[in-house]
Amino acid sequence: STIAASAMLLQFVVGLASLFYLPFIFSIVLLVIFLSATGLTLGIRKRIAHLLIAIFEWGSDVSESEEQVSESVGETREETAEEQPAPIRKRHSSSDLRIIKREHSELIDSKLLGQDVLKKKSTVSVLVDDSLDFISAGIESIIEDNVTSRFSAEQLPSWNLLSRTKYTFMHISPKLTILWILGFYFRYLILVPIRVCLFCVGMASMVFITSAVGYVPNKAVKKWLNRRAMLTSMRIFSRSFSSIVNFHDRHNRATQGGICVANHTSPMDVMILSCDNCYAMVGQKQGGILGFIQKSLSKAEHHIWFERSEAKDRMAVSNRMREHVEDPTKLPIIIFPEGTCINNTSVMMFKKGSFEISETIYPVAMKYDSRLGDAFWNSSKQSYGEYMWMMMTSWAITADVWYLPPMTRMEGEDSIAFARRVKKAIAKAGGLVDLEWDGALKREKVSNKLIALQQKLYFERLSTRTSMCSEITDDSIDILKNMSEDDRNQLFKCLDEADDDNAVIRKVSEFIPEVAALVTEAVKAEE
Amino acid sequence: MGNSSSLMLRDEEIEQISGETEFNRNQIVRLYSRFLSLDKKGQGFLEREDLMNVPELAVNPLGDRIVDAFFTLAGKDDKHLNFRQFVQVLAYFQPIDKTKRNENNDRSKKLKFAFMMYDLNRNGYITREEFKVILNSMVGANITADQLDKIADRTIEEADADQDGKISFEEFCKAMEKTDIEDKMSIRFLN
C-alpha cells in the first residue's frame, strides 16, 4: 500500500512539474542571485530548518513510544506508563553515546602523568598492579577509543529522515515511513534541481567575473570588485548547499593580511568562511577544470598555488607564505593545520608549520550541526563527487563560526607550544574535544616515537615513585664494600664535614646494618 | 556517509550470543557496530592488524600481548576473529555479579587471561625470560640489562613457591590473592 501511495504521489508531482516547475526554479535562482549580490537574507532557510528539526523530534518521539510499547509485551500497562521518561532534547555533543566507562584508561593516564595516589611502594607490586591496569585499558580501547571514532561521522540522537543515517535497529513506524517518502521527493525533486542550477550559476559567476576583473587596471577598484565578486559567488554556492551559517564575534575578523587558522571538517569549510570575508587560498596547482578555476581566481587576486615539486620543499613553502603574509595589501591566508578532515567532534594535533610563518595568528572555530546534514568528508570512504552529491541531497548544512581574537606567540614559546595553545582556544570556543593525537593516524600507523614516549613515561613512574631507586642503591652498598679503606675514610670524612649529613648517615645506618658497620669501622680507624 | 551500520546480525544470533555471554541486546548491538568499524576492509572478521590499528592499543605496552590473547582464545583459526569470538573474549571482562553462582569461575577466567599476558609460549609457566620481555616492553631502553635482571629476579622470587625458577598458574593465582582482580579487570558498560 505504501508503494501505491507513493506512485500516486509521483503522478501528482509530475503533473505539477509540467505546469509550474521550470518557471518556479528560475525565479528562485534569480532571487538567490539578487540576495547574494546584495548580502541580504530573507531568513527562509532558518525557518525551514526549525520546522524540519521540529518534525524530526516529533518523529523520534513516535518511534520511541512505539519501541517502548513493543518492548513492554508482558509488562503491565502501569509499569510502562511510569517508565516512560520525558525525552531529553539534547543537542548532540562530542561526549555523547559512549558505550563503556573508561576507568582503566583514565587511571593509566593519571599514572603516567604522575597524578595518581600510590598505595604500594615496592617496584614488583607496582609493576604487577600496573600491568593489570594496562590490560584492562587495552581492552577498553578495543571497545571504544578516542581516535578512530573521530574519523567517521558522528552519531545522531534522533533520526533526520535521511536513509544514510538510519540505524536498522531503530523501530520504523508507518508514520515515519510516509514522512521519509515525502522528504525524499521534496529533496530530490525540488531541492536538488534548484541546488544544481545555483551551483552552476555560482561557478560560472566566480570564474567569469574574476577573469573580467583581472583586466581592471586600477588596483583599488580591482580589489573592491574582486571582493564583491567573490562574496557574491560564495553566497550563491552556500545557498546551493542550503547552508545556514551563524557568524559570531565578527569584529575579530582578519582584514589586513595575516594567517587564519581553523579546524577542518569538510572541503566546504573554505566556502563557508568565504561568505563573510575574502581569503587568499593556498593549495597545490591542479590540472583540468580545477586548474582552470585556480587560474581565473588568480587573475583578480593573489592566491598561493604551489607546483607539486615546490610543495615538497618546506622551506620554499614557508618562504612564499611568509612573503604573502607580511604584505598588508594582500588578503589573509586560510590554513587548516590538522592536515585532514576530522569529524567535528574534536580538534586533533595542529602541525607546527603554519605557526612558524607569522607571530600573530587569527584563529577561527567552526562547529557544524549535523542534524540536518553531516558535512564531514570521510575521504577514505567517499570520493569527492559522491561527497558533493551527498551534500546536495541533504536537508541543509548548519554551521557556527566563531572568530577568535588574534593570538600572538609569547616570549620563548616554540611553535609546537604555540600551536597547542591556539588549538586549545579553538576547541574551547567550538565546544570540541581537544586531542593531542595526530590526524594523520587516519591513514598511518602509530609512530615508534609515541611508543618510546610511553615507555619513557612509565620508566619515570617506576624510578621516581617506587623503591626501584633504593634497589639501585643496593649497588652503592656493594661499591662501598669494595672500596679501599683509605677511599672509604675519605668519603666518610667528607660526609662528616657537612653539617646535616651526619644525621643522614645515622638515619641510613638505622635501616641498613651494613652501612652502620662501615661507619663504626671508619670511626674506629680514625681513633 | 553517516553511520550506516546496516545490521547484518540476525535476531537469533543476538539471542544466542546474549545467552552465552550475558551481554544484553543493546550492548551486543553496540559491540557489533564497533566490530564493523574496526573491520575497515569489510571482510566480516578481524585480523591482528585491525586491532593494532587502534592508536591507543598500539601505544599500550601490553598491546600486542592483548591482541595475541584474543586470537588464542578465539580458537582453531588464530588469524581471523569473527564477531562471536570477539564478544566471547570481551565477556571475560564483564563485572562479576556476586549474586550468581559462578563467582569463582569468573575470577578464575580473569586470572587466566592475565596469566596469558605473561606466558608468551603458552606452556603454562611464566619464566624469568618471559617476564623480562614484558618488562622490556613496558620500560623500553630506559633501564640497563642489569636492572632488568634484578627486577625480574625479585618478581619471580616473590611468587615462586616451589622454587623451580618459574611461575605456574597456581602460584600466579596465589600471588594475586590479595589483589582485587574483580575490580582491576572489569569493564563497566554505560546503560
UniProtKB/TrEMBL annotation, chain A:
Residues 66-94 are annotated as: Disordered. The chain crosses the membrane at residues 20-44, 167-186, 192-216. Pathway: Phospholipid metabolism; Lipid metabolism. GO terms for molecular function: glycerol-3-phosphate O-acyltransferase activity. It comes from the Eukaryota. Keywords: Acyltransferase, Lipid biosynthesis, Lipid metabolism, Membrane, Phospholipid biosynthesis, Phospholipid metabolism, Transferase, Transmembrane, Transmembrane helix. Pfam families: Acyltransferase (PF01553). InterPro entries: LPCAT1-like, Plipid/glycerol_acylTrfase. SMART domains: PlsC. It is found in: Membrane. PANTHER family: PHOSPHOLIPID ACYLTRANSFERASE, PHOSPHOLIPID_GLYCEROL ACYLTRANSFERASE DOMAIN-CONTAINING PROTEIN. This is Phospholipid/glycerol acyltransferase domain-containing protein. It comes from Pristionchus fissidentatus.
TrEMBL record, chain B:
The keyword Cytoplasm applies. The keyword Cytoplasm applies. It is found in: Cell membrane; Cytoplasm; Nucleus. One of its GO terms (cellular component) is nucleus. Pfam families: EF-hand_7. Residues 106-141, 147-182 form the EF-hand domain. GO terms for molecular function: calcium ion binding. Its main location: membrane. One of its GO terms (biological process) is protein transport. InterPro entries: Calcineurin_B_homologous, EF-hand-dom_pair, EF_Hand_1_Ca_BS, EF_hand_dom. Keywords: Calcium, Cell membrane, Cytoplasm, Lipoprotein, Membrane, Metal-binding, Myristate, Nucleus, Phosphoprotein, Protein transport, Repeat, Transport. Belongs to the calcineurin regulatory subunit family. CHP subfamily. PANTHER family: EG:114D9.1 PROTEIN-RELATED. This is EF-hand domain-containing protein. The lineage of its organism: Eukaryota, Metazoa, Ecdysozoa, Nematoda, Chromadorea.
